[in-house]
What we know:
The complex is a heterodimer of chains A (417) and B (287). Chain A is mainly alpha-helical. Chain A has 17 helices and 2 strands. In chain A, 41% of the residues are buried. Chain B has a domain of 193 residues: 3-Layer(aba) Sandwich (Rossmann fold), CATH 3.40.50.300.
Amino acid sequence: MSTTVAPDRTTTTQPQTLSQGVRGYLERVRGGEMGALPAVLGLIVLCTVFTILRPAFLTPINIANLFTQGAQITVIAMGLVFVLLLGEIDLSAGFASGVCAAVLAVTLTVHGLPWYVAVAAALATGMVIGLLLGTLVAKVGIPSFVVTLAAFLAFQGVVLLLVRGGTNISIRDEVILAIANRNLPPAVGWLLFAVGVLGYAAVQLLRVRRRRMHGLPADPLSLVAVRVGTVAVVAGLAVYVLNLERSRNALIVSLKGVPIVVPLIVLLLILWTFVLRRTAFGRHIYAVGGNAEAARRAGINVDRIKIACFVICSTMAAVGGIVAASRGASVDPNTGGSNVLLYAVGAAVIGGTSLFGGKGRVLDAVLGGAVIAVIDNGMGLMGYSAGIKFVVTGAVLLLAAGVDAISRKRAAASGLR
Amino acid sequence: MSETTSTDLGVTPAGRGAPGSGPSDDARPILELRGVNKSFGPVHVLHDVSFAAYAGEVTALVGDNGAGKSTLVKCIGGIHPIDSGEYLFEGKPVNVHSPRDAAALGIEIVYQDLALCDNLDIVQNMFLGRERKNGIVLDEDTMEQMAAKTLQGLSVRTVKSLRQPVSSLSGGQRQTVAIAKAVLWNSKVVILDEPTAALGVAQTAQVLELVRRLADQGLAVVLISHNMNDVFAVSDRIAALYLGRMAAQVKASDVTHAQVVELITAGRSGDLGLTNGNGGAEGKEAP
Ligand SMILES: Nc1ncnc2c1ncn2[C@@H]1O[C@H](COP(=O)(O)OP(=O)(O)O)[C@@H](O)[C@H]1O
Ligand SMILES: [Mg+2]
C-alpha cells in the first residue's frame, strides 16, 4: 500500500504508436466492443454485392437517391439514440414525425404562413410530444414501451384528423421543397468539405496538443492522421460522386451537387455528438442509462434527464417529418407510418447502439441508416417485392440485436474480474 | 460544485457528551443523529436511532444483516428522507433531502453496491454529477489530472488506465475507485458501507489501512463491517444496531469482541445495550 506509482503507469493505455493503437482496437473488438465495425463491414459487403448484381446501383443518380431516401430514417434514428441510451424505447417516433409533418403542411397551406413559422410549429409540436411522453415515463412511471405504443396509435389518428380523413396535402413552399430535392452548387459542396475536414483535423490536433501540455497521454499523431484521412477520403468520395452530372439530359436540365439534406444531417451529427460527448448533460445521459440509481446518488436529476431525452427524440422526429414532407412534396396519413419507425430503431441498433441502454452514439444512427437505405434501395433495384425487403430488413435488425446481446455477454466475460 | 475544502478537526474540549458513550466525551461529534425513525410503508426499519461520528476517528457501525445499517447510511446521505428525528452537522441542525445536500455538507458515502456506472470510465465515475467544466464544455484534462492525483495518493497500483470503463475492473479496483471518488472532494465525513465484504485478504488490509489513514488525516470515518477483526483493527468507537435500534455506541477500547458480538446478536451485553428486547428509547448503557 505504501508503494506509490508514477502517474504515467496509472494512465498509460493510450496507444503510443499506431500499431499499438491498432492492437488496442482489435483487443476491444475481441472483447466485445465492436463499435461501428459491423455496420461498416455490412455497408461494404452490401454495396459490393449490389454493385456486382446491379451495376445501376453505383450510378451517381442512385447514390444521390440513397442519401435522400435514408434521410428521414437517419434523422429519426439520431433522436432515438437518446431514448435508447436510457434503456427506454420510443415506438411513436415514426408517427410523431407524421404529426409534425402534418402540422407543417397545415400551417403552410391551410393557414398560408411562411415556411419558418411552419417549421417552428412542427418543431414545437415535436417538443410538446416529447415533453408529454417523457413526463408520463419519468414522473408517472408508466413503462416507455406502453406509453409510446399508446402514442403510436393515437398519433396515427392525429395525422388522420390533421389531414382531414385521408387526403394528402401538397407542399409548394420552395424552401421546404429544397431540403430534400435541391442540391448545393458543386463549389459549395467542396467548400463545406474543406471546412469540415480541416475543422475535424484542427479539433483532433488541438486535443492532442492540449493533452500533451497537461502531461496526459495522448493519441499518437499517426493515429490522428489515419482518422482524419479516413474522414477526408470518405467525405471527399461522397462529394465527388454527388457532384457528378446525374441528369439524363444535362443540356436541358443539369442535376448535380450535394443534396441539401446531407449537410443538414452532418450538422445534426456534429451538434448531438458534441452534446453527448462534451457536455455534462450528455455525460449524465450515459450515467442514467448505465446505472440510474448511481446517477441519482450522484445528485443527477434522473427524471429531468429522461424527459429531456424524450424531448430530443420527438423533436428530431419532427425534423425527420419535415425532411419527409420535403421529399414527398406532400403529407398524407402514411407519412411517418408503415416501416419508418422500425427502420429507424433498426438503424440505431445496426449502427451499434444498445437496446439495453448506456451504449450508443449519434454516428451509429447515420451508419445504420446508411445500411438500411442500401438494403432498401438495392433490393428495390433487384426487383424484389416489398415483402422480401421487409423480411430481409427484419433479419438484419435481428442480426444486429444479436450482435449487441452477444457482445454484451463477451464484454461481461472479458471485463469483470 | 459542492466541494468542501476544510478538513479541520474542530475538537472542542469538554464538549457535550456523545450520545450513549460513557467514557471520556472530550469531542463534539461532527455528525449526529438523534431519535431518527424511518419506515418503508408499513415496515418500520429505524426506531429512534441516535448515532454520532467524530472527526479524526473511525466509528464502526455494526449489526446483523437487515439491522438497518445501510438504511441509516442512506438517510445520512440524503437518499432516503428521515421520517422524524434530528440531523445535526457540526452541532447545527440541518436538512438533508438529497445526495447533493449531503455532499454540500462534506459527507461522502461509499455505498455497499458501490453505485458506479459500468459504462463510464474511472474519471467519469469519480466526477459524476460534479463535472468540471469550461463554459459548457467538460474539462476532461483537469478531471483526469485530479483523478490521477487522488488515486496516486491512495497508492493505487493496478489500474491500467484512468480511461478504462469501470466494467473492466476487479472488485478491489472498483472499491478503490468508489473510495477515491469519496475522498476526491476534501470531504469531512466518509462513510463506507461494508467496503471489505467482497474483497480478498490483501485487498481488505489495503482498504482498512486506507480507512485508518483517512481518519488520521482528520476526517470522520464511518465503517460498516461484519468482521470483528476488521472493526477492532481500525475503529475508535463502535455503534451496534439491533433490529433497527441503536443498542449501544461505545469506545472500542472499552469493550471486547464477545461483548460486541452479544450486542449484535441480542441487542445487549451485561450493562450495555437495550434495556429490554424492544426498548423504545435508543439503547444506552445504564452504568
Ligand atoms: N427501499 C426499501 N424498501 C423497503 N424495505 C427496505 C428498503 N430498504 C431496506 N429495507 C428493509 O430494511 C431493513 C434493513 O435493511 P438494511 O438497512 O439494508 O440492513 P443492513 O444494511 O443492516 O443489512 C431490511 O429488513 C430491509 O428489507
Ligand atoms: Mg447493508
